Structures are given as C-alpha cells and as structure tokens.
Amino acid sequence: MKIEAIELRAIDMTLRTPFETSFGREQVMPFMLVHILTDGLEGWGEAPTGFGALYNEETRDTVWSITEQLIIPLLLGREVPSPQGFAQQVAHIRRNHMAKAAVEAALWDLEAQRQRKPLAKVLGGERSTVQVGVSQGIEPTIDELLARVGGYLGQGYRRIKIKIKPGWDLEPVRRIRKQFGDILLQVDANSAYALSDAATFKALDDDNLLLVEQPLEEDDIVDHAKLQAQLRTPVCLDESIVHERAARAALELRACRVINIKPARVGGLSAAVAIHDLCRSQQIPVWCGGMLETGIGRAANLALCSLPNFTLPADLSASDRYYAEDLIDPPIVLNADGTITVPTGVGLGVTIVPERVERYTVRKARFTA
Ligand code: OSB
Ligand code: MG
C-alpha cells in the first residue's frame, strides 16, 4: 500500500454553545484534518487545535506548517508505515504532538482497515460501550451553570465535570451538590492555581469529588506532588502528561493518582496506549479526555476508551452536545445507560460525509508524490 496523496484541511466548527475555561471563552473551533490517500484505502485524522496556544503550545497554523514541512515529505510516495513505525520516524521532531497525533491517527485508521478490524480491536480494546460524561464550562452565573448541568443529567449523562478558576470553585461545586445530590462530579482547573491556593483544594476535599484535574502549572510536577500529599481527593493530571516519561515521573513522585489521556496531547494513539499500559501496571486508573473533537477525532478516542484500564468516565459526549451537525454519519449518540457504543465498523468505524467536511473547510491543500 503506497501513499499517493495527503490532503490537509483547515476547518472551522461552531459549538452550539460557547465553552469557557480558565483560559478563555471560545465558540469557533479551528481544527486541522489529515486525509491520507493510498492506492486503495483512505485514512483520516484530526488535530483538535480549538484552543490555540492556550491549552498547549500548538495552534492550527503550527500544526499545519510542521505537518506540511516536516512530516508529509517523510511519507509521500512511500509504503504506508505502521503507526508505531511512524512514531519512531518522527521522534526526532521535538514536541508538536498534535501534528504527529493527527497523522498517526490517519495511519491507525489505515492499519485497522488493512487488518479489516475496528480500530478498537487493533488497539487492544475489550469493551463494546464506554462510560462517558460531560465537561461543562464556566457560565456567567451559577444559576445558568445549574440549568446546564440539570439539562445534561436530564439527557442521561451520569458524570459531570465543571471547569473551575479562582473565584469560581467552592460555590459552584456546593450549589451543584445541593441541587443534584451525590452525582458523579469532578472539577478541572486547567492550571489556574498555585500551590499557595492549597486551602481551596482542601476545602473541596469535603465535596466527594471523583478527582481534581490539573490544578497547577503544566510543568510543575513537584508542586502537584506537594498538593496531592495534602488531599484525600485524587489529583488527576492532564496538561502535565505530555508523554510517557512525564507519566512515569508523575507517578514516581506521587504527583497524581489518576491520569487523563488525550492522544492529541501525548503525540498519538501509540503513546496513549503506552501510558495506559504503564498506569495499568501500577494500578493507576486512567480516562480519556477530549478537546471538543468532531466525530473524526471522537471516533478514535472512543476506540481508545475500550482498553481495560480506562475505568473512569470519558470526556466524550454525543455529537449534539458539541455541534448542530457532525462530520460523521450516523452521529455519536448517548445510550440510555449513560454510555456510548464503540464503533464496530472497520477502521474508525464511522462514515465521514465529504459535503460536510467541504462546507466547514476554510483552507485546503493536496500534496502528491
Ligand atoms: O482540559 O480537558 C480539558 C476542551 C478544550 C481544552 C481542554 C479541555 C477541554 C475539555 C473538553 O474539557 C472535553 C470534551 O471534549 O468534551
Ligand atoms: Mg483538562
């Protein structure tokens, strides 16, 4: 199987409602799609660059330029590499994990199709449905937050995560507990706090949260260890775990008791599986985070969630929680038991609708051998 062409597309997707985190409020999500065409099969990957340089250092433009200038020349006209072989091939390019992950995802899609299996099976997945939840942003008022949380619980979601920041933490959590009782609840600070704010997290210790996600700076594993030592609630790291070595360091220093795995953040599904395996060997539960992906990125995340150590609910909701129209057909839906079904078709297992991809495209380029 030879790579004949690679198409890059910049797409702009508009969220049904704006999403606010400690780093800002966004409604239009810029993504880059990678479409690899071989003599027979086609593979798709997505870089979820919706938060630009606010979440990590990458933006859609950096992802595009690294992919065009450094990654595509390694692939065009050659045999399709295995995803793991590709990860080795680009290891000399420092960081740029979203760029690598998007191309690797398209190669996983191709690899699974070549094996005539669903991606989940090729990755070592075992379950057919996965527990999911909703990640709820910061709202202008607590009443609006409560209305949104109530809406999601009414739709059947069984785990709620809320974004927090200084000044929007104890009160929203208490009001949710008061109104909705003992639901599965967790918080995500996107590194908005310092170790000197430990008192806030000690106060949250009484609220029976599943975990507190990324309270401190991305590169501050030592302070996370100091914070975790003072808390009963598990600290979960997201931004800090940029590769398997970071996971190893965090676990060795006891900086967290749970890890959020996002393939885009760690450089691809291969690295995601490696972190899953490491955590499994140390009895550290993991769960799959999200970046408000379109159905293309979410289908790959769903496949990953089927691995055995993904034991906490994923940040992975139905298509209609994000976008009025998804890029895939049928859209991803929530089951009555609060789970989502892992696609069973070969490859990503979802049908990508070309007219829709075209409708949201703001820039495209085709590179040929
Ligand atoms: O920190 O998990 C995060 C979205 C953009 C950037 C960072 C994060 C998020 C989410 C979205 O929480 C979760 C989802 O895709 O449903
Ligand atoms: Mg997070």
Annotation keywords:
globular; four-stranded antiparallel sheet; binds 2-succinylbenzoate; nine-stranded mixed sheet; alpha/beta; binds magnesium ion
Largest sheet: 9 strands, mixed
Count of extended strands: 15
Structural class by secondary-structure content: alpha/beta
Bound molecules: 2-succinylbenzoate, magnesium ion
Which value, in Å, is the CA radius of gyration? 20 Å
**How confident is the prediction overall: mean pLDDT?**
98
Percentage of β-strand residues: 15-25%
Query: What's the order of the H and E elements?
Result: EEEHHHHEHEHEHEHEHEHHEHEHEEEHE
Number of helices: 14
What is the CA–CA distance across the termini? 14 Å
Descriptive overview:
- With about 375 residues, this protein is an alpha/beta fold.
- The protein is about 35% helix and about 25% strand.
- The chain has helices spanning about 60-75, 85-90, 95-115, 120-125, 140-155, 170-180, 200-205, 220-230, 245-250, 265, 270-280, 295-305, 320, 355-360, and strands at about 5-20, 25-40, 40-45, 130-135, 160-165, 185-190, 210-215, 235, 260, 285-290, 315, 330, 340, 350, 360-369.
- Strands 4, 5, 6, 7, 8, 9, 10, 11 and 13 form a 9-stranded mixed β-sheet that branches. It has a 4-stranded antiparallel β-sheet with strand order 3-2-1-15, with helices on both faces. The chain has a two-stranded antiparallel sheet with strand order 12-14.
- The protein is globular.
